[in-house]
Amino acid sequence: MKKIVFIVTIALLTSVSGIAQEIKWVTLDEALALQKKNPKKIMMDVYTVWCGPCKMLDKNTFQNPDVAEYVNKNYYAVKFNGEGNDVVKYKDKSFSNPNYDPAKANRRNSAHQLARYLQVSAYPTVVFFDEKADVIAPIRGYRKPTEFEIYLKLFKNDDHKVIKTQEEFSKYCKAFKHEFKS
User: Fold this and answer.
1) Pairing, β 125-129 against β 41-47
2) Terminal-to-terminal C-alpha distance of the chain
3) Would you say residue 8 lies in a domain?
4) Domain housing 97
5) Which of 158, 116, 135, 181 is nearest to 43 (CA)?
């Protein structure tokens, strides 16, 4: 009986640890400071509180153990409310949301200056930055874990630097070997 309880306990702990893997989110200021000590790319999730696909991205993609493990190892992950009221410093500029309305905190609000600067025109948008905090690309819309894997690895490995056309990107995607589980 003790042996069975021990095996079940180990199995439960193993499954819980797999599920418990979460992305370690930081602010943009924290990511920029961390980059100076240990250069890594930044992945910024630009979301809003009212956005259904943003919530799906959180639940289905960012909580996927493969995605979380890969992001934590290879990126500084930033969550940024594209309609929030935070003051953010980026590239020696200060960005805010001067038209922010606290009465609309839980619904549509005005776009944050940083979201506009990064040319975010839809939510969710995940903006990837290189090790010097320069924008690589914004990826718009909801992506399942295996779809998101392509972008995580494309930018991490700098493969985007050799892809010049849509045709080359399509060929890259077709040849891509998925490792993440959905």
Assistant:
1) antiparallel
2) 36
3) no
4) 22-145
5) 135
Residues 129, 91 contacting (CB under 8 angstroms): no
Relative orientation angle of helices 145-156 and 166-175, to the nearest 10 degrees: 110
Q: CA-to-CA distance for 62 and 23, rounded, in angstroms?
A: 7
Separation of alpha carbons 13 and 106, rounded Å: 37
Domain of 131, CATH number, reads 3.40.30.10
Is 117 part of any domain? Answer: yes
Would residue 157 count as lying in a domain?
Answer: no
The CA–CA distances, whole Å, from 83 to 14, 47, 48, 112, 113 equal 39, 8, 6, 5, 9
Ramachandran bin of 111, using left for φ above 0, alpha for ψ from -120 to 50, beta for the remaining angles = beta
Single-letter residue type at 151: Y
Along the 182 residues of the chain, how does pLDDT read in single tens digits? 544 433 333 333 333 444 457 999 999 999 999 999 999 999 999 999 999 999 999 999 999 999 999 999 999 999 999 999 999 999 999 999 999 999 998 899 999 999 999 999 999 999 999 999 999 999 999 999 999 999 999 999 999 999 999 999 999 999 999 999 87
Alpha carbons within 13 angstroms on the beta-carbon side of residue 170 total 3
Q: What is the dihedral of CA 136, 158, 43, 179, to 10 degrees?
A: 140
